[in-house]
User: Fold this.
Amino acid sequence: MSARRSESFESRGHRGLESSTSAPVSDGPAGSRIHNTILMRRPSLMQEPVLVLNATYEPINVTAVRRAMVLMLKGVAQAEELHSAEVHSAAHAHRVPSVIRLLAYRHIPQQSRALSRKNILLRDRNTCQFCGGVFPSSELTLDHVVPRSRGGRSSWENLVACCYRCNNSKGDRTPEEAGYRCNNSKGDRTPEEAGLKLARRPRPFTLHTSRQLMRLIGHRDERWRKYLFY
Assistant:
């Protein structure tokens, strides 16, 4: 693989679980009208997640079908697992990949994922980290454990999923200042009644976090299981 292709994958395909699903697709090789035709078909299908493996079969990223098919058509990756669905051009039918593997080993110096609302909610499993209630994404926000007014950063270690009720109760205070006690509630009591405390300190991004996010994104696709060490 050329250095140019390597740079293309690492700058686009590994930028994060959330951003990778909307990564722009570069122009393919000369005469690539077929793959351009394919990419215009069934836009919802083209945004389905695809697990990306290194040449050693190590899971390193999640991207979209659209990006995965471009990597395959460029000869950068090959399909390891396929969906039954197909996308069609004027002359060809292509099975949609579920798992792809890079054909040349790529050194990933540091596992990283986009710090985003979506990824924080995935990490915390849509669970308010104060009251323990499980909520749809629309009923959750992000809370800075150390408020930004106190110098708290927007980081994996300082952001948690939080329901609006607990967020309003905590306000511009740390959990200790708010007087929160041991967490014994499951979201059906008010913050004042529950005596809330962080379920656990927010976790930094690690290899374990990366694999957890991949599992949560691909939990409905059994083809991913053997690659994610279930």
